[in-house]
Design goal:
The complex is a heterodimer of chains A (110) and B (114).
Chain A (H helix, E strand, L loop, with lengths): L4 E2 L2 E5 L4 E6 L7 E7 L5 E8 L4 E4 L2 E6 L4 E6 L8 E10 L2 E4 L3 E6 L1
Parallel strand pairs in A: 2-11
Antiparallel strand pairs in A: 1-3, 3-8, 4-5, 4-9, 6-7, 7-8, 9-10, 9-11
Chain B lengths: L3 E4 L2 E4 L4 E8 L5 E7 L6 E7 L2 E5 L6 E7 L2 E7 L7 E8 L9 E2 L3 E5 L1
Parallel strand pairs in B: 2-11
Antiparallel strand pairs in B: 1-3, 3-8, 4-5, 4-9, 5-6, 7-8, 9-10, 9-11
Classes of the chains: A mainly beta (110), B mainly beta (114).
Chain lengths: 110, 114
Amino acid sequence: GEDVEQSLFLSVREGDSSVINCTYTDSSSTYLYWYKQEPGAGLQLLTYIFSNMDMKQDQRLTVLLNKKDKHLSLRIADTQTGDSAIYFCAESPTGNQFYFGTGTSLTVIP
Amino acid sequence: DTEVTQTPKHLVMGMTNKKSLKCEQHMGHRAMYWYKQKAKKPPELMFVYSYEKLSINESVPSRFSPECPNSSLLNLHLHALQPEDSALYLCASSGQGRGNSPLHFGNGTRLTVT
């Protein structure tokens, strides 16, 4: 499989911005995704970015893509306690192959 | 609410039992997946069905047996499992078309093998 790396933990104060980083390996990946997993639940698709874009904004979420460095980030503005979860990036170089990052556990401190 | 439904939510089984996990989606997706997830780890791919045919088996032990009765349903039959098979089992589906076809996950079945 592919090596998709994320830092394991992130802790922020409520109201601050969170930035979760991801490095991927397959430059042919057409779409890159961010998923959120709350305790006891499956993975929820949050947002995605097409590889010919360098930024995408969706309400409080901003995705930045640096294709040259194979670096993807997810910024959450005005982070709330409900944002506490594990966040996974994923790349998809082919139609039915998805490679997930190691996951970042976000803790929001009230 | 997820559009991929998995049952049961929780399952406890002994090592000699036979049980099945079920998954259903009505999004018209033609690819369905089984993933295994250990605590705080990323999901690990087990099987992929594409147009109701098994297209990927990630060297999964034969005590796990997938079945795709039709394009909306996916089962995972379990027999003679080991305690290390205890995990969250996630079903997912995708459109598998040209363009953006992300995975849509169910909420999983929490399996405990005693």
